[in-house]
Amino acid sequence: MPPAVVIVLPVFRPDKGHFAQQINSIARQTLADTLTVLVIADTESADLAHDLASAAGLSHVIETPPNPLDAPRAVEAGLFAARALAGPDTLFALCDQDDMWHPDRLARGQAALAASGAALAHGDARLVDAEGALLHPSMFRYEGRQRRPGDARHSRSQGGD
Question: Are strands 5-11 and 34-40 parallel, antiparallel or unpaired?
């Protein structure tokens, strides 16, 4: 049976300690029916990725391209592999190499999609330093993002700006 969520995580020369924390944050998700596609974009980190994912009990597959990939191409390769593993109702989640996920991140995203009928959800992020100390509670507020920037642009253009 296909997983409820397939997570795509490009891997490029990760710091072992940080990468272990990241893998553990994915493994601790309250939504347990997941599969993680680890795309070895540097073509060198497959053993490390497999060892850390296995130690964390993370259901995973390793995708190693024949040549190194930049970030967009690694995501593309991961999504291509994920589609082959997914069913018609499977959701996809993208994970950057610097992410640490709250345990309910996937469950909350799945619930938000179900409640809204949307096809895509994007969450906010907290900014932390290398030791995990909070630098800012909201990436959106830090960057000055509007909650619904499309609505704001539309209303300005209707106002004759």
Answer: parallel
Is the pLDDT at 75 greater than 50? The verdict is yes
Which single residue is written with the structure tokens 């599969």?
Answer: 35
How many other CB atoms are found less than 10 A from the CB of residue 119? 7
Q: Is 39 in contact with 63 (CB distance < 8 Å)?
A: yes
Distance CA 160, CA 8 (A): 43
Residue type, 28: R
| C-alpha span between 18 and 45 (Å, rounded) | 14
Q: Is 39 exposed, middle or buried (0-12, 13-18, 19+ CB in 10 A)?
A: buried
What average pLDDT does the segment 28-35 reach? 95
pTM score, whole prediction: 0.85
